[in-house]
Amino acid sequence: MKLAYWMYSGPAHIGTLRIASSFKNVHAIMHAPLGDDYFNVMKSMLEREREFTPVTASVVDRHVLARGSQEKVINNITRKDKEEQPDLIILTPTCTSSILQEDLQNFVNRASLEAQADVLLADVNHYRVNELQASDRTLEQIVSFYIAKAKKYNNLDLAKTFKPSVNIIGSYCLGFHNTHDIAELKKLFNDLGIEINLVIPEGVSVNELKKLPKAWFNVAPYRETGLMTAKYLEQEFDIPYIDISPIGVLQVAKFIRRIENILNDQGLNISFDEYINLQTKFVSQSAWFSKSIDCQNLTGKKAVVFGDATHAAAITRILSCEMGIHVAWAGTYCKYDEEWFKSEVEGCCDNVIVTEDHGVIGDLIAKTEPAAIFGTQMERHIGKRLNIPCGVISSPVHIQNFPLSYKPFMGYEGTNQISDLVYNSFTLGMEDHLIELFGGHDTTEALTSSLSADTQIVWQKDAQNELSKIPGFVRGKIKRNTEKFANDRKIKEITLEVMYAAKETVGA
Amino acid sequence: MSDNLDLQKDSINFECETGNYHTFCPISCVAWLYQKIEDSFFLVIGTKTCGYFLQNAMGVMIFSEPRYAMAELEEGDISAKLNDYEELKRLCLKIRKDRNPSVIFWIGTCTTEIIKMDLEGIAPKLEAEIGVPIVVARANGLDYAFTQGEDTVLAAMAQKCPTLENKNIRTKSEGEDHPPLILFGSVPDSVANQLISELGKQGIKVSGWLPSKRYTELPSINEDCYVCGVNPYLSRTATTLMRRRRTKLIGAPFPIGPDGTRAWIEKICSVFNVEPKGLKERELKIWENLEDYLEIVVNKSVFFMGDNLLEVSLARFLTRCGMIVKEIGIPYMDKRYQGAELKLLQQTCQDMGIPLPSIVEKPDNYKQLERIREYKPDLVITGMAHANPLEARGINTKWSVEFTFAQIHGFTNSRDILELVTRPLRRNNSLQQLAWNSYTNIKI
Known about the structure:
Chain A is α/β, with parallel strands linked by helices. Chain A has helices spanning about 10-20, 40-45, 60-65, 70-85, 95-100, 105-115, 130-150, 180-190, 225-235, 250-265, 275-285, 285-290, 295, 310-325, 340-345, 360-370, 375-385, 410-435, 445-455, 460-470, 470-490, 495-505; strands at about 1-5, 25-30, 55-60, 90-95, 120, 165-170, 195-200, 215-220, 240, 300-305, 325-330, 350-355, 370-375, 390, 460, 495.
């Protein structure tokens, strides 16, 4: 048993559901107790999703516990098959169902005889992998299933596209700034004259997956999700892949040079040097920003970085190599990817931290006292408590990290966004510091005292107590409304009764 | 249960569907109970799935050093390689050291049910060993929905309430002319004070409340006590108080809405032979103050998809407000515990001259969406999983969970209920000049 207050990555089935519900017309059925379909709320809220999330539960209740699921799972699969007519139904085990040890594969086999849709059992172990690993595996599982199917029916399309083309692997729901990143990548490939063969899994029908081998190469821009699929496609069809995350000026350049190499290996003779040069100097403002005197002021400032492997490594490199900021330590919660992370940030920070315990990170931040933090929502809250500004650079995130406006982290526009984020975090810290130096804002006190000075209303102790229990952000309003209510009725003393009466009458 | 009304004849139509519906896991009750019981610590013994749900559902609360945590089960726990007793002891000692609570609640989950972890057996031994009371509640998704989590916790607490050594001391002391009354159901302190003051106006004293502000202040409960619930989802607690603590249950409608509050007080008064004073006027006055909201809701139709068991009381209040209730979905319907509330619903429908709605227990969300397409209600009260997709199809929704977190009890808070109910209607009034009402390609 482990005492845990907070988790950086979710349980395995969340990863599976994120992949399944990213595809078009794929339905996931969770073998889970009532209340485990919380994924639907997240998708509907965080992504402000307009469609019903294609995830339902085959509910595990007391009866299932006593007698087993029997026909229930099969009936739920065939029912969804009729109702929604999906191309694929994925039966998703949860931590609860995995300890029941029912033969879910058997249910899947039986249901697929009856259902029009293909039926798969997600191959993930709840007690061994987390959300991110599960998403990687599920994507590979679906892709390999449909490649195998196409092979079987002999309609696999192996001919390469006429013009150079690419598959982007790793566009999926609930990813950190994912839709913006993918849009930015598409733009980048368009600039380079490379066609997009397929972007998976978001918005793609599983029937299109057989087109995957037509691409000249694959990119898996996120370390966490997509790499397994890229490796599988390399193994199966000898398609080269790029696993560089194009985040930051240097990495974008490296990413493009790798593309150049791959294309030249396949018989082209092209150079993207001029493109990189132009973009770096004139489209991205980031390189110029590093040179400007603003950024000069950031030199040697202390920062710490924590997040998933992809983002924490990328941001560490940007801070250290592109902006001259001193990264005291960089860390990730992707424990399973520890070695890769360490090798990526080598030379860019004093120390490397790999942990899933937010308490450890909190203590470490307090001890380090950086000028700014770059982390997840958890680090933002740690920063709030310690009065250190924080830029959010990685999941887990809140709804405000699903911005409506265009905010990629990848590509050349991404470099601009990141520069703004970094710069704003530090200047805010500076401002705070200066305010403190010059005695702070003292206007608040003066304003409140002058406002309450013209009322001669006395608050009885009970009422005062009650008022103090009301959350700070509405307390002032309730106080004013109650006093106005009392004033209007020539009441001189506010008791509990007066407070309640005010609420009943004017909603104070 | 004095109100055993005859619900069979001509009355409300009860249905039961497949139970394929969306609701919160009952462990969510820790979110409001840890705040209510100030000296408590809640330990949820479950898996990453439980933790993930809590951390996402509780939003910002998680960051404010909450007095709850997960005892996250690992593979060794599942396969019984590790000893449950030793593991729990290790965690509880750490909690005692870091937080020093007066009580530790163990919240059993689906996983502890399936692996048959004997929490009830371990607790008394460990309690004696570490010197902190341990209360065990099985708030799992195999058996319960959302707010029923509170029911399991209060039922467990009811057994921990002290008894008075000499019950004669208690009965009719301090000039009371009625036997002691204990109220049960977790409400914020200010709401509790409001309800106590309403009863006080009738000369009725509330001797105790389950739960109290602190675990150390749990009320004493004796055989001569009367008990009355303030929330509709507390049937296990009611049963425990009657059967295990031998108290007498006052079966009343719940004090939600001015009509419900008045009926609740009247019922308590009638049991104690007290003639209610000025209640009618008080209710009328509240209704007058609601006039601006009533104008918005009157004749509008509402559909409850059902996820928190407050549905019958809210539907009854909204019917009295002039709304037309199309369907009352509800996770679980205890016709005995909610008997008086059902009777009041029936009465209200007759008074308002509208047909009795169907009550759909264990609803099937998919079928409900088909009915919503057919009825096109003016308002759907539903969980967040369906809210945005329905809004995109031009259907107004109110997120149901807000009713469990808002202050909705008593005369004083009637405005708050209507504030919630009318919010989507008011918002859409102000958006009406924008012609975009459908945000999806599929017509509903």
